[in-house]
Amino acid sequence: MNKMISRIAARALLAASTLVLPAASFVMPAVAQAQNAEQVHVRGSIVAVDGSRIKVRTREGRTVDVTLAEGARVAGVARADIGDIKPGDFVGIASLPKADGGDGALEVLIFPPAMKGTGEGSYGWDLKPNSSMTNATVANAVKGVDGHTVTVSYHGKEKKIAIPPGTPVVTLAPAGMKDLVAGAVVFVPAMKGDKGALTAQQIVVGANGVVPPM
């Protein structure tokens, strides 16, 4: 089940990169189909770049090497605002259960219109312990937006998520290999092979002070 969920997430990110690189087709990475590989999420800052290999200092304090597969796609993020979330938008929200019920957002990604429906659903996420990721539509098929709380719909289900002040809200932006430089903050859904080697078909990179919050 965890592998299936990770692959759903990979589809969403791959679609993001194809959006900013129109020549790329929307397909699942070949490495993601390998039965003996698992997906891991690498979050951290680039330490060095050597051709197709990047060295990343992770948020856990480890340094790992990630090899970018041939034709790997790069997507960027741009700052957005809670007020940018409109009825009918498709969003990806990482959240945690609240003590008083419902969920509280950890971050919000507003997908471009062309990506509506990408990775739709709600599933476990590893941004924080017990967090989840919900890719869903705001308002159109649900109740609407109430202050800083959004009600979203996916596969006929509804979920209400509060967005506290200060929650990172971003959208996708064009990026390329030139943006993969030392110091850049990245989010990498990588495939881990039998011997522990990490390979990535897509990568999300921050720029201009905006970092991938997912």
Automatic annotation (TrEMBL):
UniProt keywords, alphabetically: Signal
Organism superkingdom: Bacteria
Stretch forming the signal peptide: 1-34
Q: Which protein is depicted?
A: DUF5666 domain-containing protein
